[in-house]
Amino acid sequence: KGAVELIKLSKSYDDHVAVKDIDLRIPAGSYCCLLGPSGCGKSTTLRMIAGHEDVTDGDILLNNRNVTDLPPRKRGTAMMFQNYALFPHMTCVDNVAYGLKVSGVNKAERHASAMDMLSLVNMVDHAGKLPSQLSGGQQQRVALARALICKPDVVLLDEPLSALDPFLRIQMRKELKQLQKTLGLTFIHVTHSQEEAFALADMAVVMDNGIIQQQGHPREIFEKP
Ligand code: ADP
Ligand code: ADP
Question: How close is the Cα of 6 to the center of ligand 2, in Å?
Fold first, then answer.
């Protein structure tokens, strides 16, 4: 579970073409890094997969199911953002449980499920704290738990490490990779860092100016012959 296929996917903003006719297959269980310079269309591609952005043309298949016109919650994807986007007035456990509120799960079950997710990211001891009482890395773990509570097949991460200091970045990189392996989910991670992609990805996709320039294992792409 978690195979992603993009077929002739395009996105235009007015007269500006941000993503041009891209074809891409990401096998289930991959750690895929989307790379490229600022403005090349990485975030737009990720947001279209998440359903946060309408496509101009083309199709998105998840687990061989066409999800192009489905709302975000019906796709089996979950997105984690750069700035974590936690609710400041809610405790960690409530932030995580919030993801289930819309699905009509009762309060006790939401809480139990949120504690499970916090345990997955080693944040059980901080369950009752507010986001402001946590470090950047800890907030990021909570944001990840919130993304995972909906049991996605595909986790979408937009520059998840860029707000962290270099030491934490390397620590969280390890944790992300570990979690992805343990859960066996597909991760699609937008980054502008080759080093990050090299450390994390088993599939790297390099975009430039709205098209896919290169794809393959990071060793094949980044190591000179
Ligand atoms: P990246 O994530 O690679 O930095 P983006 O996907 O954010 O690139 O943007 C791709 C191109 O589309 C850029 O030229 C950007 O300015 C443009 N773009 C992105 N979002 C919008 C938007 N909401 N309205 C207009 N143009 C946009
Ligand atoms: P990123 O590089 O991570 O995509 P940006 O700073 O480019 O982040 O974009 C942040 C937000 O601004 C996004 O929601 C994007 O859609 C919007 N945006 C980006 N470029 C433009 C643009 N040229 N016009 C309008 N909105 C834009």
Answer: 22
